[in-house]
Amino acid sequence: MLKILRGLGWTLMGLLVLAIVVWCASRMWPIPESRLQAQQRLETRLPAPGRNGYAQLWTLAVDGLDALQREQALAEDVRRWDAEPHGNNVTQPQHSSRPDALHPRASASCGPAAGGCLAQVRADPQRFAEAHAGHHALHARLEQLAEADNFVSPFQPKGEGILVPLPTYGLVVDATSARALAYIQGDVDGALRGSCLGLQLGRRLVPGGSSLVESIVGASLVQANAQLLADMLVELPADHPLPAECALAMQPMRADEQSLCRAMQGEYAMSRAAIETSSREFGGVLVLDRSSTLARVAGNLGWACGAAATAALEADRPLPVSAPPQRDFGCLSNIMGCVLTDIAAPAYPAYSSRTQDAAAMLRLLGAQRWLRQQADDPSDALQRLPAQFRSPVRAPQLSADGSRLQVPRRSPSRSAAESPWLSVPLQASPAAGATARD
User: Fold this and answer.
1) Can you tell me the distance from the alpha carbon of 390 to that of 395, in angstroms, rounded to the nearest whole number?
2) 367: CB partners within 8 A, 6+ apart
3) 98 shares its domain with 127
4) Distance CA 91, CA 378 (A)
5) Are 296 and 244 members of one domain?
6) What is the pLDDT of residues 148-178, one digit of tens each?
7) Which domain-ending residue is among 320, 351, 382?
8) Surface-to-core class of residue 69, CB atoms within 10 Å of its CB (0-12 exposed, 13-18 middle, 19+ buried)
9) Contact predicate 335/287, CB 8 Å
10) DSSP sequence for 44-73
11) Which of 9, 79, 218, 246 has its CA 20 to 30 A from that of 412?
12) What is the DSSP letter of 187?
């Protein structure tokens, strides 16, 4: 019996030694060079020159504050965030808890993609008038936000709880239906001006924020306001003068304006904070390899940065989204890291084309205005469409009935009702009132 027990002991010890050897070998497993390069691109934070509008964005829900008071309110919330290890005391702007703070109203929304917003408002103007009651100052602040160059958050990510607090983004899209309401009420130029400023704000949010949320909100703003402008302009004379704010806002988006690089750098920073916190927990070091996990995260996110991404954006080709990192021998000692990165990987490709569709919508808006100013038939004029309004991959085409100009949608649909085409009208709807023409 003693010999048997001694044999079992040696066997268990041998297995333990083997496990330690395998674990150590797994920890020393080399990280692929492609992941290391992606990690370097994500850690080299892109600059955000110009004026930072984050204080105004952070305190958007509050009326009656001047610029200095908004900066002070943001600074106080940052101080509270830094002072609390888990950040649970700053889940939203402190001022947003005031009784007079504004909150998003569902009745003001035209839906996830704000499609057909002008028609929705025209069908039920009273609903939207009531939804926007008391929001005049909010809409003025949103127009001021469009003057900012970037929206870089001063909140540093934490590794647990709420990774980073976010502004009340529901209010950022509040003004879209308000501009449609202004249009049908006869304030045509005010509606056009506001929509162009909404376009401008979206264009600044896409590359100038600190996380993917800002970029997606920005892309949605560009797409919604471009659609609204197209729906309004088709009811106006082709040579109707545009407000000065539209000259810059309606220019085609450059590749750097569509880039998600800063956004993914922000996502990487949040992931790094969470990984570093987890690796310090008891037992975490045994199942979480910090370096390997960070490299796997970079493999999920690094496609947004670099020359290949820029070239794809310039040519309007799908971004070269990397396949999720494959399980390898290194995962034996990094079980938690591999599981977490596998879970997160599928979420990002769905967002990769949102900004490209926003840029395509803006090109369609420019093409619509150009086509309506041509004397010949749209099908003939379309052959001469200036290069700035087309892409090598998605050239605008007429719909089957010739009433709309369209290109294929690249991003996944957000609802069953969303068309596979991005399109703008070339003819006013018969149901459209004569408000804008009077």
Assistant:
1) 5
2) 385, 389, 390, 396, 405, 424
3) yes
4) 52
5) no
6) 999 999 999 987 766 788 898 989 988 999 9
7) 351
8) middle
9) yes
10) SPPP--S-B-HHHHHTTT-SS--HHHHHHH
11) 246
12) -
Dump pLDDT digits (tens) for 368-421. Answer: 999 999 988 888 899 999 999 999 899 999 999 999 999 999 988 777 777 899
Domain residues for the domain of 156 are 54-261
Helical axes 261-280 vs 290-301, angle rounded to 10°? 160
Residue 91, amino acid: T
- 294 and 344 housed in the same domain: yes
**Mean per-residue pLDDT over the chain, rounded:** 86
Contacts of 401 (CB under 8 A, 6+ apart): none
What is the Cα–Cα distance from 166 to 211, expressed in whole angstroms? 10
Do 162 and 21 belong to one domain? no
Question: What are the structure tokens assigned to 347, written together?
Answer: 């979420």
Token couple for 387: 């290069």
Give, as one character, the DSSP assignment of residue 129. H
Query: Is 429 within the bounds of a domain?
Result: no
pLDDT of residue 438: 46
Q: Alpha helix locations (H) across 132-240?
A: 136-145, 175-184, 188-208, 212-233
More confident residue, 343 or 3: 343
Which of the listed residues 241, 261, 281 is the one where a domain comes to its end?
Answer: 261
410 Cβ contact list (under 8 Å, min separation 6): 318, 353, 356, 357, 360, 394
Domain count, the chain: 2
pLDDT > 70? residue 218: yes
pLDDT score of 435: 47
Tens digit of pLDDT for each residue in 281-322? 756 677 778 888 888 899 989 999 999 999 999 999 999 888
